[in-house]
Design goal:
Shape: elongated
Number of helices: 0
Radius of gyration: 23 Å
Number of strands: 43
Distance between the termini: 39 Å
Helix content: under 10%
Mean pLDDT: 86
């Protein structure tokens, strides 16, 4: 990866060199002046934008397994009834799927042993299907995915791609994974779409059914990785665990989401920041992170546990729920449930929040209301009440009684 070069000449004259065609994005946001807490930041993947017109082109009609050892663009048609596409090269490879069907009874349909980057593009008005086996043979431990890449992976195009995983995960990158377009359906036994260092989605239509998480970034050893960034697309997820899960941060700048999950709709161990988008979430918990920050969007949550939960999942952030904007509707199930639950601080600075719940709020630190429209069970209010164990409530203006919500008993925390 190229890096910026800084040349200092005379009186601190800065010259920025050589970023070329790399896609690079850094977004830093400072916490509102709510008292206490560090700044928050997140960054996106740095997969290089490649000029594929400079690469050799190859047309291949598939009938059996093929091995690609040379960089280039490969336009594929045809069927592999029991085999795979195997890629091992030091260069970049682009596969253009132009009506392709691949089934492999013994492993992945597409397997990248090595490549600088693999891009898979689907051609407009074509249907493409990839199916893996119920058992894998001849692959090292840990290789589980209908599309499995040890390096950067990009999915693009205007066609249709259907991915079925019979053993584990659907689409896997052990580096960065980026989706820019296409109509992609994933049915997976475990996680559907998984990037280790990051998952970035800028467009496309995704329809996901998973036995694990829907979309997931897994790197838990590097604070600058393991994140999810979504800025567009239409995403439908039915998941047995989380809909979207980030090991570090998750930032959503736009898109349309319909998430039905057994566990969390969207989960980040660090920062979960929503700036825009339309959300329909039906889950145990709607949004969960150490720091939940909502600046905008139309968010509808139906939850059976907590609607929004700020819980201590990471030491990188103070436990906080901060709402600065957006239109948020939360409907809670009966029982020991909270619409907005913070194991730390709760700040409402703007937006419209409409809550239907026995327990609208639960917080352990301070709570401040400085603006916005707050409606609780049909009544407009400026109070942030605090929930006690056993169903009792205590009113609070501009902070209530910080740290008192556990006096009535041991609240269940996730």
């Amino acid at each position: 990866m190229k890096r910026d070069k800084i040349v200092v000449v005379g009186l601190l004259v800065l010259l920025l060199l050589g970023i070329g065609g790399y896609y690079f994005y850094i977004n830093k946001t400072n916490k509102s002046s709510n008292g206490g807490g560090s700044s928050t930041s997140t960054s996106t993947s740095q997969i290089e934008n490649t000029d594929w017109g400079t690469y050799d082109s190859n047309d291949i009609t598939l009938t059996k397994s093929i091995e690609i050892t040379k960089e280039g663009v490969y336009t594929l048609t045809g069927t592999i009834s029991d085999g795979l596409i195997y890629i091992k090269t030091d260069g970049k490879v682009k596969l253009i799927l132009n009506g392709v069907s691949i089934t492999n009874s013994k492993g992945p349909a597409i397997y990248v042993e090595n490549a600088d980057t693999l891009e898979i593009e689907t051609v407009k008005n074509t249907n493409n299907t990839l199916v893996d086996g119920k058992t894998y043979s001849g692959f090292e431990d840990g290789v589980e995915g209908t599309i499995y890449s040890k390096d950067d992976l990009v999915l693009s195009g205007e066609g249709t791609l259907k991915v079925t995983s019979n053993l584990g995960d659907g689409i896997v990158s052990k580096d960065d994974l980026k989706i820019t377009g296409g109509s992609i359906t994933v049915n997976s036994v475990d996680d559907a779409i998984k990037g280790k260092d990051s998952v970035e989605i800028t467009g496309g239509v995704l329809d996901i059914t998973s036995g694990g998480d829907g979309i997931k970034a897994t790197n838990d050893t590097d604070a600058d990785k393991g994140f999810v960034l979504i800025s567009g697309g239409t995403i439908t997820i039915n998941a047995k665990t989380d809909g979207i899960q980030a090991e570090t941060n998750c930032t959503i700048n736009g898109g349309t989401f319909k998430l039905t999950t057994v566990d969390d709709g969207i989960h980040a161990n660090g920062l979960l920041e929503i700036k825009s988008g339309t959300f329909e979430i039906n889950s145990a918990e709607g949004l969960e992170a150490t720091y939940v920050k909502i600046n905008g969007g139309d968010i509808n949550i139906n939850a059976s546990d907590d609607g929004i939960n700020a819980a201590n999942k990471s030491t990188a952030y103070s436990v906080t729920c901060e709402i600065n904007g957006g239109n948020i509707t939360i409907v809670m199930g009966q029982g020991d449930t909270d619409a907005i639950d913070s194991n730390g601080n709760l700040y409402i600075n703007g937006g419209t929040i409409n809550i239907t719940a026995q327990s609208p709020f639960d917080y352990d630190g301070e709570a401040k209301y400085t603006g916005g429209t707050l409606i609780v069970n049909g009544q407009k209010t400026t109070s942030i009440t605090n929930q006690f164990m056993g169903g009792g409530q205590m009113g609070g203006h501009g902070g209530g009684n910080p740290g008192q919500n556990n006096q009535g008993g041991d609240r269940r925390r996730r």
